[in-house]
Amino acid sequence: MKHLAIFSLVLVFSAFAACDRELKEHPISIELKREITASQETIESSRSVSGIIRFDDALASKKPEKSTLFLIVRSKGTTAGPPLAVKRYSLVKFPFEYKIGQGNVMAKGAQFEGEIDITARLDMDGVAKAQPGDIEGTVTARAGDAAVEIVLDRVVETAVVPTGSASVSGTIWVDPALVDKLPKTAALFLIARSEGVRQGIPLAVKKVVAVEFPYSFTLGQSDVMLPGAGFDGPITLFARVDQDGDAAPTPGDIDGKVSATAGDKNIELVLDNLIGVSQ
């Protein structure tokens, strides 16, 4: 009986092994893989725009050897608030092939769809904020379009300040428990994002060196990073004392944040978080 039981178990395991072997020997067919890939590509292309960016012949002499290219997408007719999507390219050569879509949206849950305005801007200093001398062009398209040509045909003469823009101001101070952890030499970064936006280029940024606390600050339209964006509406304001002067946070930096609305004054922002260090 014992041998019979063992023999039965061997048969069961053999059957499972045979089934497993059969599954491994019959992978998804090439045709099915192609159908799945084609379906995914169709969905992706319906949520993106692609094409070529070229220089207007009249501005060819102004083409710089080194520059940064920004693509900025807004819903058609929208001129204020954060863009729908942003993408940055370095070391570009013209004519330049581009693609921007759902993977580049700035706000969580936003959809890359419908009619949109796309601005391409060749930036001379690598900072997203438009400056005189930058070269740009704009086109209207629809999500899903391909072969959309954008012509760089306009030189930015002066920075355009949207009407109705405001600022925020107040005081930044350090939690008493962290005062002794302040680096001896550090820079203070002030960063504003529109409420709910957690990725992409910030709405506004300011860097302050040789800072002393408590520190009185003002952040507003002159610190906005993207052309055409207005410093308005609900925002989240971040402040960080950075020990190496680099905008990226590193262990040992001290930061804090507060919610506000453009126009608010007497804001109290407390630096109360020691980054990457157990407290």
What is the CATH class designation of the largest domain? Mainly Beta
Helix-and-strand structural type: mainly beta
Report the uncertain regions.
Answer: 2-25
- Output the CATH topology of the largest domain: Immunoglobulin-like
Write down how many β-strands occur, each being a DSSP E stretch of 2 or more residues.
Answer: 16
What is the number of helices? 2
Based on CA atoms alone, the radius of gyration comes out at 27 Å
Question: How many angstroms separate the termini?
Answer: 66 Å
What's the arrangement of strands in the largest beta sheet?
A: 3-2-5-6-8
Named at the architecture level, the CATH assignment of the largest domain is: Sandwich
How would the global form be characterised?
Answer: globular
Order of helices and strands: HHEEEEEEEEEEEEEEEE
- Average pLDDT: 81
Which strand-content bin applies to the residues?
35-45%
Tally of discrete structural domains: 2
Fraction in helix: 10-25%
Biggest sheet record: 5 strands, antiparallel
Can I get a quick summary?
The chain is mainly beta and 279 residues long. It contains 2 helices and 16 strands. The chain has a 5-stranded antiparallel beta sheet, with no helix packed on it.
Which descriptors would you attach to this protein?
mainly beta, single chain, 15% helix, disordered N terminus, Immunoglobulin-like, 5-stranded antiparallel beta sheet, 279 residues, 16 strands, 2 helices
